Amino acid sequence: MNIVTPFPSININTANVYTETARRDNQLREVIPAPASSSASNTETKAQSDAEKAKLPGSSDGATYNATGKIADEKSVQQRDGNPENPEGTEQESEAIEKKESEQEELQLEQEQQQITELKARDTEVRIHEQAHASVGGQYAGSPSYEYQRGPDGTNYAVGGEVQIDVSEIPGDPQATIDKMQTVR
Length: 185
Prior knowledge:
Blueprint: H1 19-28, H2 50-55, H3 74-81, H4 87-137, E1 141-150, E2 156-165, H5 174-184
Antiparallel strand pairs: 1-2
């Protein structure tokens, strides 16, 4: 069985009726002049070779920086510029820098481990505390909800929490309301 659906009879206008309007608008608009070529001023720098760039003061592309953003060692900068004072000393200095960096990494790892230990202890304390609220509140207490902090290891640790407690009165039964409030308290 063949099902043929007829196309709707809609007139599609293929003529561009807005051509005249667009042409008239373009003629009425202000003509923007072409930009004039400008000459380089004294403050602008011209293209330079790498050797010329290295001679410029303040050019420290290859300098080694420490964690504070300062140049780590002057001798490596001087050596890069072509003025090595003591080639044997730079090797000792690089070893000293590597030693300092490894000490900093170890210190950072120790701080992260200490922070993780503190977060774990706080997580345990918060969970026990909120669970105590939930158990004492009995049927009037909701389940605990926690506030989390992400540790350096990427794990979320509970650092705060709360338990919602129903403190509404029981309509028509004042003694039941008193018993409920004593439980809540």
